[in-house]
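Tutorial handout. Part one gives the primary structure; part two gives the three-dimensional structure as tokens.
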Amino acid sequence: MGLCGFENITVPDSGTANTQGTLQASVVGVSIEFFAFPRYFNASMVPTTQKCLQNLKDAANGNPTNIRIGGTTQDRAQYDPNLTVPVNYTVSSATAAPMSLTYGPLFIELAASISGKVTLGLNRELANLKNTISAAKYAVSTVPNLVGIELGNEPEFYGSSAAIANGSSWTTAADAASQISWQASLCTAINKTDIIQAGVFLQPENGWSIANLAPKEVSGGSLDYVSSFGEHGYPQSACSGATTNLTTLMLHSDIVSYTKRYIAESAAARAVSKDFYISETNSATCGGGGISPTFGAALWVLDYAMQSIINGAVRLYFHHGTLGNSPYSWWGESYTYAPFYGAYFATLALADMTSIQAIDGGTTAYASYGLYKDSVLSKILLYNSDLYSSGNRSFHTFNVQFNASTVDRTFKALRLSAPSATSLVESGVFPNISGLTFSNSDCSKVGSSTPEIYTVTANKTSVLFTVQESEALLIYDQFQAAHVNHLCWCSMINKVLSIMRSDPDGNALATDSEVVSASDSEAEDSVSLSDDNEHVEVDDGDGGFSASTPLLFADTLDSQTPLAATIPTPLLFGLSPVYILAVVVIGAPFSILLFWAVLHSAVAFPPRVLTVSDTIASGAFAGTEAWTHVVNMTQAPHPYNSEENLRVRAYVDATLRQFKMLAIEKGLPTDFITFGTDMVNMTSDNGVIWYESNNILVKISAPSPTSDKTLLLSAHFDTQTAANGVTDNAISVAVALELVRSLIYNPPLQHHLVINFNNGEELFLLGAGAFTLHPWFKTVSGFINLDGTGSAPGTRSILFRTNSLPLLNSWKLYAPYPHASIIFNDLISFVPSDTDYRVYVGFGGLPGIDIAFYSFRYQYHTPDDNIQFSLPISAQHLGDNVLAAVIGLCNGIVLDSLDKGPPTLHPITDTLATPDIVYYDTVGHLTVITGMKFRAYIFTLLVACSGWLIVKSLYDTFHIGSNRFLLRKLKPTCEALVLAVLVFCWVLFSTFALSKFRMYLNPGVAYGSPYLNIICICAWVFGSFACAPKLWPRIGEFLALRKRSTSQPHRRRRRQHRLRGIASAADQTHQGLRPRTTLQSALQMSDGPPLEKWLPYGILCFWVLLLIPAFAASLRNVHLLFFLLHWTFFSLLAIVFTEIVSPIAVKWWREQLDDSRAGYQVWHRKIVRFYEKQIWGVQLAISSFIPSLLTIEILSQLIIGFPSCTGGAFSESLSDLIFASFQMLRKAVVGEVVLGVIFCPLFLYLCLVFPLSRNHPQQFSFEQTWNISTAESSRISTVDITFRSGIHAQPSKIEKQFQLVDKSLHCKFGISNYCNFTASAELLPKVPLDSIDIWKNATVCTNSICDFMGHFSGVPGSRTCSLKVGFYSKPSNDSAFAIFIDPETSNVRNWMLEASGTVLEPLRNKRRPTSFIGADEVIVLRREYSRPAEDSGIIEVPFLVRFKAVRPFTGNLTVSCYLPEVNFSPAWHKLRDTLDSWVVPGPGRHGGVKIVKTIFFAF
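Part two.
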């Protein structure tokens, strides 16, 4: 173990070229043993190869990995052009290499399928030159990427007995002569030069070297045939009993020493202008001696590759040997081994680099490299080669120094780590690259890398990086990219300024001293005057009135206005005020949304995933360690009834005990971490469940507690039967685990903390129920429950439920990244799932908060709930929040102020009361108010709006008269309100109708294509609102809100001519003339005032009306309409703004009207006209876009959390969003375009295209029942498949899918959706026929009450069985019976009936109208096995049945035991292998395989 060290290293910002010149792409290559090559590339045998190579290609930025095919068996192989299989050989065992083999054209054709460069090894030892030439000819003509041919492999081992020696002594001289001769003959035959990879030696120290061969190639005249020289290298050997040593293998100084052997060899190759390759290498020969598959070997790959390149190697090929007997291989048939992580990391480091330099001296355990692109520093690689196996993990700190820069310098770092250097993937311990791992099944990426971010401010010259023992860190220097981006931004800004100085046609705008010509295009617009003679309606050319213009500048509409004028520009950059105002009005909404996005991303998540070094340094939460726990716990599904559940429990327990030892090492009291004994046995209130808990209880003790009040943190570690359980609920368990480590490095708490790692949440919340009966529960005064649903791909956990205002305020105060919403609290009753929160509140009466991941419920309770769909940053987010909240609560006074409430009699079935609290977050700020205050806000706003409307109405009536007020103010406001209400109702009705129609044609679209469905809804809503103003005149006429227009299309020209006259008359009006007759005629032709001006007023009235039901709902503690408060307030603010700004704008215009400077009237005309036409946009920007930030937050939660509901249940919210956000786009033609271009094609697509996919699957539950009661019944089994409610896929497609498994399939779709079929013998569960035994012990009757006693043993591997009793007798009204499990046990607790924990009343009255008078069933959940078996344990269950009966009496006993389907059911695996990817298994409680046995009795 190394000590914590520190060193300064200076990394030059510019580098020099390596001796071999510019580094090639894909320096790290793969060598594959010759005979094993076809098997490696057979996807059915080795499914990992292609994906591993693709991953390496991705790491190399698209450059494919180079492959060398060769090895010992290439010198045993003969080419057979007639062979119909790739290779043919026989071996004594599957792990042995053949002594002879033949290969054919298919072998070479398989090599041709490789995308990278290929080097092919051919036979020389057997001295069959003709055969080798035949193979080479076919290879050259077939393999397009063939870059090298090796003639023989490690010739120093041929010896004089080899055929190539021809009985003579085999020396280096003889080999050189042989190589030169064969090269000339072969290359002449294939008509190629520059194709041979010569040398391929293993022992240069014994004279078998390139330094010896290269001069002879020159003198022998064969150098032109040589493309490169190859050499092999294995630092250690396990051959002939030799021992290996992992410490020396991975030690940096030893790697430096070993790779120096390549300096002379590479120099010899360069001396003759040829490249030097390490054509075969790996950690240790002859199986590796146990060190080759370790994580330490992965680190060796990384450091060895760097040093080999520095010493002259152009390319390295790491060897892969016999499958099943090659520990140094990177992948195999069932695993992606640890060394692959080192290869991937090395490829990442070398990608796109042109040179590499060693920074350290090579004499210590600590390596540092600078990697350069075009001589500019791009990456830094740090490596701590101290071997770590267990205990306290030390670290080494690198103080990286560099030249100072004038801007901030940012570094992004990826960390290659594992629990220890001896970690083995085969043992279930995965390395990771900042959270990224690789699947064992096919080498696919699981999760993704979350980089660490380091920022160095300007003029600073160093930054600290910490690397633990057996760990490497790859640092990306972002300085150069930032510098380039800075220059690009400067260029962009200059370009934007240049554009802003130009007119719309690209011509430069006039400066203060320039004169430009202005065409008064507006003079051609038609105008009509309202009866108040102060506004002009401008016809936009399509017959609709689109703007309102004040009459006070009607004189400027005269066609006699001068066309040329001097335009003064008092603003910056010489910009026209028209463009400035246009940018402000149009750009403001998008700026607000951009601000929301930037701020949201900045405050929502931690900047990086922290490591254990951060925990040690500051007590912070280590997300990387938490993710390691997640990976270790989620190797397979682990429901309560599984062996994997016991393994996960053991892992959690062992990790906590390691933390206890760590706490003792840090000098903390021995009772700082205390383990509680959880041996609660309990039954449900109706007696149908017998549960034995095995929770893991841990108490973090406060050394000097201020009171006995305790905080509870709860997370369950069991899963559903099909799910690995990353989000539900390994992340939460990992957070609770790492919380313990963090608390060790933080100051002591002032209140105790209890953590319940409970087992049985997926089984009716039984684990939490058991804890409520534990003595520790009595001191708990508040709790935090952690859970999850779906997946966490970089998404946040949400506080979605609480019953405590103090705890909620504490979360707001302490959590650094709070995310909460009252909406989920109100909606959870509609979601078919629940959490342990219900138990703690309903039965325990505790105040608490419920936190869960909620995104992408498609993966909920399915195999896709794995690390492939989640990211470590989500664990960091939850961990940071929980750690801060726990420390804050346990060190504060809130726990002392909390009191338990009365328990609910039936917490599982009763509805929990919703709190009178409103809480939500916007851009990272959590708002918490009481319901009383929320209702006070609503009432105040209602009063304010009503008061303002009344005062404003009285004011307008007094100044302009009642008639004008009704016509100019009240009528258009009512029209806008009616329009808003009608369109709102139309949108709801039409969206509902369209959704029903679409689901009739194509069920499942809202679930399977949620985002396309949302876009379709948005397009429909926007199109409806955008087209509404165009249709409104006719609707207004129909509703008698407008006069019927007398103008017809054929009168348009005459009308426009008349309106030009009106405009002229308006000019006279400005001079004191009032042509009444003309104005009245214009009024008769008008269709009414334009809607744009009055929509904000109508919207305000609309929101005010909606506040009334929001107030009423709040009285019932339903607060999900809280956002209406924001919409109403900002709508009111927009109206007030308009009423203040409009008079100021008019006054300003009048003051400047008489300015005699040329051009001022034109300029003012444009400004004021633009203002009058677009001020409604400013109103809507205020009233809509600011509160829309909150609405977007709400919608993002609903869309992510409830994808199957977004098409219908939340269409109203979507309508509100679109209605508020897009009213600025008022032109009807825009709405028509959206409907025609977006909505119609998209709606047609959704109606026709099958919606389900791999990411949006149809879920089903599986149960296979096998009755082993008789020989006849045991010949077949039945399979029942039930589909999750709420997902209505197409029955025909589902039935067709499952008929692929069995033609006897029968499906029924309706209220219940299910299929079933009879499974044949080959699909029977893998369980012995005699696996269940039932014994009848005795029957004792007293006064007509009989006790029937017995016991049964379950199926091996099952801890969950049920006992069902059936009686057959004459009907009897007083018949009653009850079942007792473990009748001699006295500590049974009845969970849901009474808090006191009394035993259930034994006799329950059961009356049936048929002869089958009584039946009952008890499910038994054992915490452990009663006795061991060969493969797994067996439970034994004593029972007693008490009943009233009259002899004779007959009955039966049926025992059913449940097993995980994934382990025991061939039918399950056939389903998984046969079905399309859009059909996936969903939730199950006890296991998908049920083994049933029935016996009969009579007395």
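Part three, for discussion. The chain is about 40% helix and 20% strand. Residues 132 and 712 are 74 Å apart (CA to CA).
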